[in-house]
Amino acid sequence: MSQTDPDELGLDREPREECGVFGAWAPGEEVAKLAYYGLYALQHRGQEAAGISVSDGSQIVVYKDLGLVNQVFDEQVLCSLSGHVAVGHCRYSTTGGGSWQNAQPTFCTTEAGTGIVLGHNGNLVNTAELADRARSLGLFGRDSSTTDSGVLTSLLAHASTDKGLEEAALELLPTVRGAFCLVFSDENTLYAARDPYGVRPLVLGRLERGWVVASETAGLDIVGASFVREVEPGELLAIDASGLRSSRFAPQEPKGCVFEYVYLARPDTTIAGRSVHATRVEIGRRLAEEHPADGDVVIPVPESGTPAAIGYAQASGVPYGSGLVKNAYVGRTFIEPSQTIRQLGIRLKLNPLKEIIRGKRLIVVDDSIVRGNTQRALVRMLREAGAVEVHVRIASPPVRWPCFYGIDFASRAELIGNGLDMEGIRRSIGADSLGYVSLDGLIAASEQPRSRLCAACFDGQYPIPLPEDELIGKHVLEGIEPASGASPTSTQEGYGAHDAMQRP
Questions:
Q1: Which of 65, 163, 189, 323 might form a disulfide with 72, Cβ 3.0–4.6 angstroms?
Q2: Which ranges constitute the DSSP H helices of 201-352?
Q3: Residues 34-84: tens digit of each pLDDT
Q4: How distant, in Å, are the alpha carbons of 80, 199, 308, 363 from that of 438?
């Protein structure tokens, strides 16, 4: 049974966030259901796999599988996961392939027989170095995964045998480089940590009878948790029966990802005190000022282009219209399309409203252009639907550089913004005109100081130094043999953790 990516249908590979993480410490609550709904709100951050771990103080149980959150879990499964500490994760792979073994939370036992589970959002840049350390200790391959998250879990489990998990984390995390928001636990305590640059968002919320942490404030809202604050860059939180403890493992040097505002985060999320929806509307206003166009109607490419299209219409005075209908249920499919369906390409995801489009000069607002395939097919489809002119406006600068901090872009050679100038891109996608918002305009819309943002995918300035090419990348750990004496350990062995797929 083959799995077909939208790329193979002639569509752009959209930028994909690695993961969403969620944690709960809440005695007396159904923490598995809290984690389920938290992940449901974070589903946009990763659609390959989902998992939840729960501890009752004596045993950790992990349940995970490939698929969406509501495909992996049902009422029966959630009711079987009882305890007071939960760690949840939804995944899109940026280190390690999309196999079941790489689904999270990752699990590892300590030499003392206790357990550790971990969920990770982000991407490390010294994964190979950490894997070498794990190999030297005889740890690499113990959890059978090929992810940076699995390596971290093994190192934490090893170190915590003598000194406890909190002290082990404070010792290990200063040696970890890259983007990471971690939610992890042992049998009794929930932990959360954020890299010193704060590349990815992570927030803390309060329940009446406990605490939650989540990748976005939308994950707090869905479970009725009140927002307390962001987890600070370089901070480790520990939550147990004694309350909330904060430790600092590194000085903070904030470099939040500006692309979270453009595309990755939900519009109803707040990052660094700024509403994502308000930011996207403001980007649209600035885009209209920087690149006006004579048109009859402004239409978005749903859904991520919608707020910017609203802002563009407001600033330009050109009426806003819904000219495209999105099929929300199209993603990866197990059904190989026929040649006829393949030629339809983008219509699997978007279909035009001809009565809105026919005879009109369109201003089409989208969030970004990666390889250009989607926009090329979109412009062609709009012309076939009767558009007189198609003016494309993009709510971010040209993407010219890949991300190594948790977004799975195409390679630099595939990025259309790297190989062509503005006129070349316009001709390539077949638009009558093309305009991108400037980086200055985007940053101004975020209301964050430029010094506190990472915009490496636009300007090539990577705030966290990168290793040599062969020591970084999605498959950097695949094909490496386990250390001598370290045998891959199924999550079923010895600790009550459940293999959701019942593999032989």
A1: 65
A2: 217-221, 259, 276-290, 306-316, 339-344
A3: 999 999 999 999 988 999 999 999 999 999 999 999 999 999 999 999 999
A4: 51, 21, 14, 18
pLDDT value of position 330: 56
CA 116 to chain centre: 23
The pLDDT, as a whole number, for residue 346 is: 72
pLDDT of residue 84: 98
> Is pLDDT of 186 > 90?
yes
Q: Say which DSSP state 208 is in.
A: T
Catalytic one of 19, 90, 257, 454: 19
The full 3-state SS of 28-56, as one line of letters, equals CCCHHHHHHHHHHHCHHHCCCEEEEEEEC
Largest CA distance in the chain: 73
Tell which residue, 413, 382, 385, has the closest CA to residue 400. Answer: 413
Q: Which two tokens stand for residue 357?
A: 């489009």
Write the CA distances from 337 to 11, 229, 235, 347, 348, integer angstroms. Answer: 13, 47, 48, 13, 10
Per-residue model confidence (pLDDT) at position 146: 61
Nearest-CA neighbor of 202 among 177, 187, 184, 224? 184
pLDDT of residue 7: 42
Instruction: Indicate if 19 belongs to the active site.
Output: yes
Exposure b/e, 354-363, CB count within 10 A at least 16 = b = eebbeebbbb
What is the tens place of the pLDDT at every residue in 88-140?
Answer: 999 875 554 556 677 889 999 998 889 999 999 999 999 889 989 988 888 86
Percentage helix, strand, coil, to 5, in the chain?
A: 35, 25, 45
pTM value surpassing 0.85: yes
| Residues 142 and 488: beta-carbon distance below 8 Å | yes
Degrees to nearest 5, angle at CA 17 with 478 and 191: 85
